User: Fold this.
Amino acid sequence: MSEHDDPDTAAVLELHRNWWDANHQLVIPLMRSVFPAKDAYLMFNANGHPYFGLDEKTELWEWYQKQIDVVAFPQIEIMRLTISGDMAWIACEGTFPMRPIGEAGTGSETWQMRDVTENRLRATEIYQRDDGEGNPVWKMWHFHASPLPGPDEQRPALGGTLRERGLGHGPGIVPRRVTSEGVRE
Assistant:
């Protein structure tokens, strides 16, 4: 069976796509469909703060709807996707094109608002085949995002820049890109 025919891979990639699609216009019902029920979900937001469960996440998004506009579908490159039994993880990086519409912007000193097309981030997504109520349904249980360095900043000790390697690229890595239509290899 190829990876494209694997139902677990398809389910995890669909959640990944839905997550980033929900981010585009901060669509709360779609966002909520990605995560387990109740307070099982934990997020380390790019703003530097943790959020516990769907109620807190929903409150954050309701606040962000008044502060930022995600002006286009995020360009996210999957660097790694690993599935083992009932656990899976994705490591990705990309651009998150947003602009401030409220006075607070991101509300964070950690994640400063940049030019609309230059908000870069990296993220780790942890999935479990459990919907939070014990049913064997894939859901994202943890998300951790942080800003990427500038495109021309040299990596300490090793050198090389984001611009030189390309978004999502690394040794032996051919990234996959999630789009609003699906995932491109």
The longest strand covers residues 75-84. Residues 7-25 form the longest helix (19 residues). The helical segments are 7-25, 28-34, 53-64, 162-165.
